[in-house]
Amino acid sequence: MNGEEQERSIREEAAEVLEELAAAVPLGSNHLVVIGVSTSEVAGQRIGTAGAESIAAELYEGLAGIQSKYGFALAFQCCEHLNRALVVERAVLERLGLTEVAAVPVPKAGGSMAAMAYRRMKEPCLAEKVAAHAGIDIGETMIGMHLKDVAVPYRPARRYIGQARVTAASTRPKLIGGERAVYKLPEVQDTQLCD
């Protein structure tokens, strides 16, 4: 497979995973999806060692195509050099009341994926943190800190994008009751409560 075919494949693989998640959850215009990517891992290298803007561009195209189909917002996680801040559209930052932080992600400080998203979005900015409804982690970048409580693992049919392992999650509201909840202590003898 030549370089162009490989990049097209990466774009299609990313779109396939996000489409599956969007349909399964389901995701719509009121939802936020966090994306964490190691382009190094996609290329078969160790995370943080071989970032590739060409890979980031293909991933972005695949993800953005699905995002526009379903209408949810995307948040792209930066690397630890920017404290895992997230690239979002300014309209999303304002709609969700997120805290803005000041930096421009570049491949060596933010990561290739975040840097690409920042250049491709209409009015990008960085949010300090988000509480996303779902997320995709491409290359084990640890997106869990940016998911709402309670994260529910989602296992997409495609387990790799390029050479990077893919994990995903949806979220659900906290369960505070229901058929298994206990609202009254069972009646017991007083002697059973003492030592």
Q: Which range does the strand content fall in?
A: 15-25%
- Which radius of gyration do the C-alpha atoms yield? 20 Å
Structural class, from helix and strand content?
alpha+beta
The chain-level mean pLDDT equals 92
**Beta strand count:** 9
CATH architecture: 3-Layer(aba) Sandwich
Fourth CATH level, the homologous superfamily? Hypothetical protein TT1679
Strand count, sense and barrel status of the largest sheet are:
9 strands, mixed
Order of helices and strands: HEHHEEHEHEEEEEH
Sum up the overall morphology in one term.
globular
* CATH-assigned fold name: Rossmann fold
What percent of residues adopt helix (DSSP H or I)? 25-40%
Q: Given this structure, which CATH class is correct?
A: Alpha Beta
Unreliable runs: none
Spell out the key features of this protein.
Rossmann fold, 6 helices, 33% helix, nine-stranded mixed sheet, 195 residues, alpha+beta
Verbal overview:
The protein has 195 residues and is an alpha+beta fold. It has a single domain (3-193), classed as 3-Layer(aba) Sandwich (Rossmann fold), CATH 3.40.50.10360. The chain has helices at residues 3-24, 39-42, 53-70, 90-96, 112-120, 190-193, and strands spanning 32-37, 73-77, 86-89, 100-101, 124-127, 134-138, 151-154, 160-161, 164-171. α3 packs across α5.
Helix and strand arrangement:
Blueprint: H1 3-24, E1 32-37, H2 39-42, H3 53-70, E2 73-77, E3 86-89, H4 90-96, E4 100-101, H5 112-120, E5 124-127, E6 134-138, E7 151-154, E8 160-161, E9 164-171, H6 190-193
Parallel strand pairs: 1-2, 1-6
Antiparallel strand pairs: 2-3, 3-5, 4-5, 6-9, 7-9, 8-9
Helix pairs in contact: 1-3, 3-5
